[in-house]
Design a protein that fits this description.
The protein is of the alpha/beta class. The chain is 42% helix and 16% strand.
């Protein structure tokens, strides 16, 4: 199970104990296709996503997350509602955002939605907060991209105050002040776990440490090893601030199939189309087949292949990055519901037991 926001336990020598291994799945809710490669409706995609979350619970996955997006091909604009539907049909798996774009949301409402999810799920909610590499929510909700940094910094500060419980007094520039305001619902067993998603900013690493949140490294391209300095910076910052050590997680895209060849054939055309599409607004380089083969290799950021190949890569990178959690971002660009269910089953029943064996 995932660790909460309490201080880390210590061994007999007074050193921090290692956090337990945690393995999750998360998705951006990409529109799925039928077996004839025809896109399904937004409604059917969302219903399929609930089934995928239920299956993840059944095959032993620890966490199921949904990232916030607001576009035709990523219609998951209300992740907490879908997560509540999954929570109502499961009893063990933790559920949360991956990520919530806090910059264009209201911290009070985010807290209320996820404290409600925490109640519905019996204490299984988590939140991964991010600035948003996808900026669709800014014009949708009337925010200026010129305020990108200030919005996130101030809203994280308010969110940290809300997590403390009790009436909140807070003042900033981005929303009206709160004066001794009770914010409901109250959580039943203390604050739910909160992570800061970091895609390459040392400032975000320092922010996570300053607020005592856990660190989620979002590695979507290039060598995962280049993120090792972020892990070191996080530990050093926590120590210098006198705060307890916190978990470190890794989020990366991938796809598991019975064979390496099948995984590549299913994933590559979807990956190419998705990156080609987002490159128009986000400046990503359009991948070539050679660059794709590098990314799915041992030094790349994509976890695509048979269960053994994916398990070995997860184990290697968790060790290299000093992380205790791995979340596989699955569901790239219109894969069929059948392929996604197979991916989830193989991840839970074959990949995760093998990773635990490799890291034992």
């Amino acid at each position: 199970m995932s660790t909460g926001p309490s201080e880390a336990a210590r061994d007999s020598d007074g050193k921090p104990e290692q956090f337990p291994l945690v393995f999750g799945l998360d998705t951006f809710g990409d529109v799925t296709h039928d077996d004839d490669d025809r896109p399904l409706s937004h409604a059917q995609t969302i219903r399929n996503l609930v089934e995928q979350g239920v299956l993840a619970d059944g095959v032993g996955v620890d966490f199921f997350g949904i990232g916030e997006h607001h576009t035709d091909d990523f219609p998951l604009s209300a992740a907490d509602v879908v997560l509540a539907a999954i929570a109502a049909r499961t009893a063990r798996i933790r559920v949360g955002s991956a990520v919530t774009v806090l910059s264009s949301d209201d911290p009070v409402r985010v807290f209320q939605r996820y404290s409600t999810l925490d109640a519905v799920s019996g204490g299984r909610a988590e939140v991964i907060l991010g600035r948003g590499s996808s900026i669709d929510s800014f014009p949708l909700f009337g925010y200026d991209l010129a305020d990108y940094e200030d919005l996130f910094e101030e809203k994280v500060d308010l969110f940290a105050e809300l997590l403390k419980g009790g009436p909140v007094t807070w003042q900033g520039k981005t929303r009206p002040p709160l004066r001794n305001q009770d914010v409901v619902p109250h959580t039943e067993s203390g604050p739910f776990p909160v992570w800061i998603g970091v895609g390459g900013s040392p400032e975000s690493v320092m922010r996570a440490a300053r607020y005592g949140f856990s660190l989620m490294l979002a590695i979507i391209g290039g060598s995962p090893a280049r993120f090792a300095p972020f892990s070191n910076l996080f530990h050093q910052a926590l120590e210098s601030l006198g705060k307890a050590t916190r978990p470190i997680g890794v989020h990366s895209p991938g796809h598991v199939a019975p064979t390496d060849e099948q995984a590549r054939e299913e994933f590559w055309p979807r990956y190419l189309e998705v990156i080609r599409h987002v490159s128009r607004t986000r400046g990503f380089a359009v991948p070539t087949k050679d660059s794709f083969m590098y990314e799915i290799g041992p030094r790349g950021a994509l976890y695509v292949g048979s269960p053994e190949v994916v398990a070995q890569k997860i184990a290697d990178n968790l060790t290299a990055l000093g992380a205790n959690r791995f979340d596989l971002k699955y569901g790239m660009g219109g894969l069929s519901h059948r392929a996604l269910m197979t991916n989830i089953e193989l991840y839970g029943t074959q990949v995760l037991p093998r990773v635990r064996e490799l890291l034992a």
